[in-house]
Amino acid sequence: MPIDSSASNVATNALQAIPFGSVIGGPLKACIDAQAQAAQTTWDFIRQVGLTEDENGKTRAINVQFEYINGGRRMMLNIPLLTIVPIPYIAIDEIDINFKASISASSSQSSEKTKSLAVDSGVKAKASVRTLFVKASAEMHCNVSSKKDSKATQESKYSVEYTMDVHVHAGQDGMPAGMAKVLEILNSSVDTVNAKGELSLSDNVLYLDKSDKKTVQTVVASFRSADGVLDAKQIKIYELKSNGEEELVADAESKENNKLSLRLADSEESVVCEFNSENVNRNYYFKAGECKSLVSIMSK
């Protein structure tokens, strides 16, 4: 009787049917998706924590301001928030996939055949002979019987077992070069400024000949707010009257009704104010925020 190979065929087919692409590719795809989510989380953190939009829709870095006393003056420290908080850079740097397929198959077959034959023959007959002196007789008996036995047994077994171990290791990754450059720039922007702002003038005293109608002298003024931003548009000029009152004579933001020649520089980080002989023997206050500085126009 040939050996039954059905169990072996089933086991072989089961091994061939294992979806190795899904078994190996599935965990890899899951790790890639996880890495993409980690990158999105990093961007969301930077956008929500360190960046904001102004009224014009422009994105700018969020600064943290600390006020402190330095040399008897109130100072303001401006620090970009992204430079003082840890930015999450989680990256998967190691993936181990261990897969084991265990398939066992067994087949057994047994056959038993028994045949027996028993013959018992007999013939029963009588015969007699009589002579003058002898009498003889004979008897024969014959039986025939046969016996046949057969037995067959077949058994097959198989089992399939899959085992897969996936080990993923992730940790804080190095900062991307672009973000490192951004933080380097932000670190260099850490600055201190007077809490009231800082108003700077190129001159506080000018000398002009009252009889010279053509000579013009200029004062360049700039203002840096407590946020550390140069904002020359806040500068206003007041003339100090003899009675102590102040009259607005020029406004950098509004160019209407200016009695002095005042213009913004091309960079809009400073203003240029022109004085001539008509301004001799007068005093003017440059003001911006809480700061003010006096300019006197003297006669030669």
Strand order of the largest sheet: 11-18-17-13-14
- The shape, in one word, is rod-shaped
The number of distinct helices, counting runs of at least 4 residues, comes to 3
Give the biggest beta sheet: 5 strands, mixed
Mean of pLDDT: 78
The assigned structural class equals: alpha+beta
How many independent structural domains?
3
Number of strands: 18
* C-alpha Rg (nearest Å): 55 Å
Could you provide a short overview of the structure?
With 300 residues, the protein is α+β, with helices and mostly antiparallel strands. The protein has helices at 6-16, 20-50, 177-188; strands at residues 51-53, 59-61, 63-70, 73-80, 90-118, 127-130, 135-138, 145-172, 191-194, 198-201, 205-208, 217-224, 236-240, 246-251, 261-264, 271-275, 282-288, 291-299.
Structure, explained:
This protein has helices at 6-16, 20-50, 177-188; strands spanning 51-53, 59-61, 63-70, 73-80, 90-118, 127-130, 135-138, 145-172, 191-194, 198-201, 205-208, 217-224, 236-240, 246-251, 261-264, 271-275, 282-288, 291-299. The chain has 300 residues and is α+β, with helices and mostly antiparallel strands. The protein has three domains: 6-103 and 163-194, no CATH class; 109-154, no CATH class; 198-299, Immunoglobulin-like (Sandwich). The protein is rod-shaped. The model has no long low-confidence stretch (mean pLDDT 78).
